[in-house]
Design goal:
The complex is a heterodimer of chains A (117) and B (114). Chain A is 0% helix and 52% strand. Chain A is built from no helices and 12 strands. In chain A, strand 5 (32-39) and strand 6 form a beta hairpin. The mean pLDDT of chain A is 93. Chain B is an all-beta fold and 114 residues long. Helices cover 0% and strands 49% of the residues of chain B. Chain B contains no helices and 11 strands. In chain B, the strands form 2 sheets. In chain B, strands 2, 4, 5, 6, 9, 10 and 11 form a 7-stranded mixed beta sheet that branches. Chain B is globular, with a radius of gyration of 13 Å. The chains are: A mainly beta (117), B mainly beta (114).
Chain lengths: 117, 114
């Protein structure tokens, strides 16, 4: 069964520094996608970055990069040059791409990031 | 297209009443998802549609919950005989039915059962 684990309930980072948010996953399907979402206090879920299981290179989107280690089943989010506006909840999610079956997204419990001035 | 739209944004209801939420997905998205999120937790999957067909329902979705997506466009989620434990944020998301695509979320409907 699919499972996402985020072991850091809360993290602090100094403004302009980099921070890594951890995510491990479990799946028996060889084809899957990994996603990171940001949820500010206003509540909307904002898509940040995507990594496919067959992608050879780690995904990057601006200040966001995904450190994908397939053998370890980890997909950590790295935020470089943190800004005060990065303070939010961050969720790791996974979706399997089976030939048949579910297409739902499964989410972890989240990490609350606080950026300090 | 302005994204996924959910109405109402907030709903306060008395225990035992029925409530209905609406979700308008991004127009070209044929997959639509409902999630429930309680404070400090990640979104929990409730159900999803591909076009008008409801393809999966979570065990979280008791018989008091029903979702529809007539004509494969907007969707409604109804909760009958609400209980205090139903208080949560209800999130709707939509996506294309191809691999590797992210789901886009609406701003959610916050339900408070008093």
């Amino acid at each position: 069964a699919q499972k996402i684990t985020q072991t850091q309930p809360g993290m602090f980072v100094q403004e302009k520094e980099a921070v890594t948010l951890d995510c491990t996953y479990d799946t028996s399907d060889p084809s899957y996608g990994l996603f990171w979402y940001k949820q500010p206090s206003s509540g909307e879920m904002i898509f940040l970055i995507y990594q496919g299981s067959y992608d050879q290179q780690n995904a990057t989107e601006g200040r966001y990069s995904l450190n994908f280690q397939k053998a370890r089943k980890s997909a950590n989010l790295v935020i470089s040059a943190s800004q005060l506006g990065d303070s939010a909840m961050y969720f790791c999610a996974m979706r399997e791409f089976p030939t048949s079956g579910t297409y739902k997204y499964i989410f972890g419990t989240g990490t609350r990031l606080k950026v300090l001035a | 297209d302005t994204g996924v739209s959910q109405n109402p944004r907030h709903k306060i209801t008395k225990r035992g009443q029925n409530v209905t939420f609406r979700c308008d997905p991004i127009s070209e998205h044929n997959r639509l998802y409902w999630y429930r999120q309680t404070l400090g937790q990640g979104p929990e999957f409730l159900t999803y549609f591909q076009n008008e067909a409801q393809l999966e329902k979570s065990r979280l979705l008791s018989d008091r919950f029903s979702a529809e997506r007539p004509k494969g466009s907007f969707s409604t989620l109804e909760i009958q005989r609400t209980e205090q434990g139903d208080s949560a944020m209800y999130l709707c998301a939509s996506s294309l039915a191809v691999g590797g695509t992210e789901a886009f979320f609406g701003q959610g409907t916050r339900l408070t059962v008093v």
